[in-house]
Design goal:
- The complex is a heterodimer of chains A (about 300) and B (about 260).
- Helix content of chain A is about 30%, strand content about 20%.
- Chain A is α/β, with parallel strands linked by helices.
- Chain A has a single domain, classed as Aldolase class I (TIM Barrel, Alpha-Beta Barrel), CATH 3.20.20.70.
- An eight-stranded parallel β-sheet of chain A has the order 3-16-15-10-9-8-7-4, covered by helices on one side. Chain A has a four-stranded antiparallel β-sheet with strand order 5-6-14-11, with no helix packed on it. A two-stranded antiparallel ribbon of chain A has the order 1-2.
- In chain B, helix 5 links the parallel strand 11 and strand 12.
- Chain B is globular and about 50 Å long.
- Chain B has about 260 residues and is an alpha/beta fold.
- Helix content of chain B is about 20%, strand content about 35%.
- In chain B, helix 2 runs parallel beside helix 3.
- Chain B has two domains: about 90 residues, Translation factors (Elongation Factor Tu (Ef-tu), domain 3); about 120 residues, Rossmann fold (3-Layer(aba) Sandwich), CATH 3.40.50.
- Chain B has five helices and 15 strands.
- The chains are: A alpha/beta (about 300), B alpha/beta (about 260).
- Chains A and B meet through strand 5, strand 6 and helix 8 of A and loops of B.
């Protein structure tokens, strides 16, 4: 049985990854998950300098999901290289580093530094975080801005570039096409959907940031639809995510045309979700007589 | 830290909205006072763990006791569990109280739903032969767990403060401490933020250490999501900014180190 997939020339032992921001750099989940079993570890977004993130309350549960407004707190690229990338050297899995910035120059600085890092297999560019005021999503909600930053990053990047798209747009295929036209090697979607929760007892917003990004099983049908639409719109490979809780969910994305899939919020529900998804995909292939997972990618048209 | 199915050994209502539950779980093996466990209610719409402080640990029986307040759908579900029911647990989480830090007379201060973790800490200090007293703050004379505390320390070593004056000192736990004239060497505390702030001030004035257990909205419970941070006075070594994770670096902090 062959579960390996290829995304922009990079071979993955299976299509199952962690969604950025839900798994740290893998360290915190090391006692639950053998990282060697994962297709890839996608790290939490890292910027050129440490970011404080938003004030608390940063997270709140919603029906079959959660809202977060962490605000991309991160230790900055220098500590990330020395600590997180060093930690990942010991594992046989692909490493995709999620990159964030408040300006074009900040993104490019991180991309340049990571270009020297052999442990980094791919870059995922976060132009879709809804929780920071500057940069980030400003690049991801306008096709021209997305094209421009993608083009600049592609010029500097030593590793293949994945642009992570926001669902908070009128037409996500327009964004997918802009990323492709600017030379992106792949796209990943969806980032969280902007939401809000109000505390009726305190008569105020639950999150200090007022709005947050919705993730978890609640958003899965939206994510599957958007992945399917983008698959029809572009030729570059797609990594699908949004509420994946089990193998059946992951297979929905794969059948819709995703080459890779990522488990996000459900890592918080069960630290072993990724492993269960991998095992479940193998069982499904066995049961349905599928010898190569590539036969399943985009099988539903 | 592990995650597994925990089995309910017993469950009872202690007071209005306050429930107690003994769970059979391997989490008991490494658990320390002041740590917490994440409980996943068996519902499809409540997916995050409920972080609950550990009230008692019975290592021989492989069991822990959790005393919690019903605050929403998840804790309501937990409160309806009966002996034999099971749900998934994550733990033990966080750093817990370090009994070696107890110097002189330790005051174990609990306020409201911050009262329960003081019980196991008291037992641990008693085992270590350390001198301590409990200071418990309640809304009124409906003092859940009071008998359990009395068994550990004797009633004469419990100070009570109530919001309505129906038992003990009419006022805050700090009022109870100052009016007692006790000279504390160390403070261990868990409770609402105004109480912790007041205790930080009290300890600072008295020139003693206060170890306070903080609470924050939490998602993963393992340090990955960065949801539950608290502000720190100095740059935190992990985050490289003035934020520490309550679930990993905490929930217990040296009061001097946190900006509350």
């Amino acid at each position: 049985m062959n579960t390996s997939v290829n995304i922009a020339g990079v071979e993955f032992k299976n299509p199952v990854m962690t969604a950025s921001g839900t798994f740290g750099s893998g360290m915190e989940y090391g006692s639950f998950v053998d990282l060697n079993k994962l297709g890839a570890v996608v790290t939490k977004g890292v910027a050129s300098v440490p970011w404080e993130g938003n004030p608390t309350i940063r997270v709140t549960e919603t029906a079959s999901g959660m809202l977060n407004a962490i605000g991309l707190q991160n230790p900055g690229i220098e500590v990330f290289r020395k600590r997180d990338l060093k930690f990942l050297e010991d594992f046989d899995t692909r490493v995709i580093v999620n990159v964030c910035g408040k300006s074009e120059e900040e993104y490019l600085e991180v991309v340049r530094v990571l270009g020297e890092e052999k442990r980094v297999d791919m870059l995922e560019i976060n132009v879709s975080c809804p929780n920071v005021k500057e940069g980030a999503i400003a690049f991801g909600q306008n096709a021209k801005a997305l094209f421009s930053i993608t083009e600049k990053i592609k010029k500097e990047a030593k590793q293949p570039v994945i642009m992570k798209l926001s669902p908070n747009v009128t037409d996500i295929t327009e964004m997918a096409r802009a990323a492709e036209a600017a030379g992106a090697d792949a796209i990943s979607l969806i980032n969280t959907i902007t939401g809000m929760k109000i505390d009726v007892n305190r008569k105020s917003f639950v999150l200090a940031n007022r709005t947050g990004g919705l993730s978890g099983p609640a958003i899965k049908p939206v994510a599957v639809r958007m992945v399917y639409q983008c698959v029809q719109a572009v030729k570059i490979p797609i990594i699908g995510m949004g509420g994946i809780a089990n193998a059946e969910d992951a297979l929905e994305f794969i059948l819709a045309g995703a080459t890779g899939v990522a488990v996000g919020m459900m890592n918080f529900h069960d630290p072993m979700t990724t492993l269960k998804v991998i095992k479940g995909i193998e069982e499904y292939m066995e049961r349905t007589g599928c010898s190569d997972i590539k036969e399943l990618i985009g099988a539903v048209r | 830290m592990i995650t597994e199915q925990a089995v309910v050994l017993s469950s009872e209502k202690l007071s209005e909205g306050i429930f107690s539950m003994w769970l059979e779980t391997a989490v008991a093996g490494n658990a320390m006072p002041g740590q917490f466990a994440g409980l996943y209610p068996g519902r499809e719409d409540t997916l995050l763990q409920r972080p609950i402080s550990i009230c008692e640990i019975d290592k021989k029986a492989g069991a822990i006791r959790l005393v919690y307040r019903v605050a929403g759908k998840g804790t309501d579900w937990l409160s309806r569990c009966a002996s034999g029911d099971s749900f998934r647990i994550l733990g033990p989480c966080g750093n817990g109280f370090d009994t070696k830090k107890a110097e002189g007379l330790s005051l174990l201060v609990g306020g409201g739903i911050g009262v329960p973790p003081m019980l196991e800490l008291g037992k641990a200090l008693a085992d270590a032969g350390k001198e301590f007293k409990f200071v418990l703050g309640y809304r009124n004379s409906d003092m859940f767990l009071y008998e359990d505390f009395a068994k550990v320390s004797g009633e004469e070593n419990i100070l009570i403060a109530t919001d309505d004056g129906s038992a003990g000192v009419h006022g805050t736990v700090v009022d109870a401490i100052t009016s007692s004239g006790l000279k504390a060497g160390t403070v261990f505390a868990c409770g609402p933020m105004p109480m912790l702030r007041a205790l930080k001030g009290y300890a600072s004035q008295a020139g003693i250490k206060a170890w306070i257990s903080l609470e924050e909205r939490m998602a993963c419970g393992v340090g990955a999501c960065l949801g539950c941070v608290c502000r720190t006075v100095n740059k935190d070594e992990h985050s490289m900014v003035n934020n520490a994770r309550v679930c990993v670096e905490g929930p217990v902090f040296d009061a001097e180190d946190v900006d509350i």
